[in-house]
Amino acid sequence: MLELRLVQGSLLKKVMESLKDLVNDANFDCSATGFSLQAMDSSHVALVALLLRSEGFEHYRCDRNISMGMKLENLTKILKCAGNDDIITIKGDDGGDTVTFMFESPSQDKIADFEMKLMDIDSEHLGIPDAEYQAIVRMPSAEFARICKDLSTIGDTVVISVTKEGVKFSTKGDIGTANIVCRQNTTVDKASLSLCYF
């Protein structure tokens, strides 16, 4: 039996919305430690490793390790039906072929449930090697997304270089070049992204 209750349902919505363009199908693994996903993109360039720890859920019950294969596009369609303030509950049976998503409004005046068919996905778990990084940069994820969006108007690729003074994002395209420098700052937004460089 699997039952997960996430008060911050918008968190799951945002994470899945950002993953659906990178990964088509993935196995969600549920264990005593948390709800996780590990998948490669279709071109085998990017590895996505996601862990929502059990402590982050209001209620977390996972009697035994369960692997649930889901098409992320279908999952995001279902999650779009949840309001940003809704509480999301995920339920599944051991060996079942469906998973249920329940959305509750904060005032409890609206409850919706959706059942989604699971898929059999053959995937192997890849080990992520421990590495020592030359630089670790923490910055707000919204700022990183804005920088990438701004630079995409000029070029297709971005070069990221790190010095003691800050992080430099550079691109070159048919219409010209662009550089954005972010200087070191001690305050870090709660929704931050860590960039690690070898």
From TrEMBL:
Classification via SUPFAM superfamilies: DNA clamp
Q: Name one GO molecular function term.
A: DNA polymerase processivity factor activity
User: Which BP terms does GO give this entry?
Assistant: leading strand elongation; mismatch repair; regulation of DNA replication; translesion synthesis
Identify the GO cellular component terms for this protein: PCNA complex
The UniProt function text for this chain reads: This protein is an auxiliary protein of DNA polymerase delta and is involved in the control of eukaryotic DNA replication by increasing the polymerase's processivity during elongation of the leading strand.
Q: What is this protein called?
A: DNA sliding clamp PCNA
Family classification:
Belongs to the PCNA family.
Using the record for this protein, list the coiled-coil segments as residue ranges, or answer none: none
Q: Where is the Proliferating cell nuclear antigen PCNA C-terminal domain?
A: 127-191
Q: Where in the cell is it found?
A: Nucleus
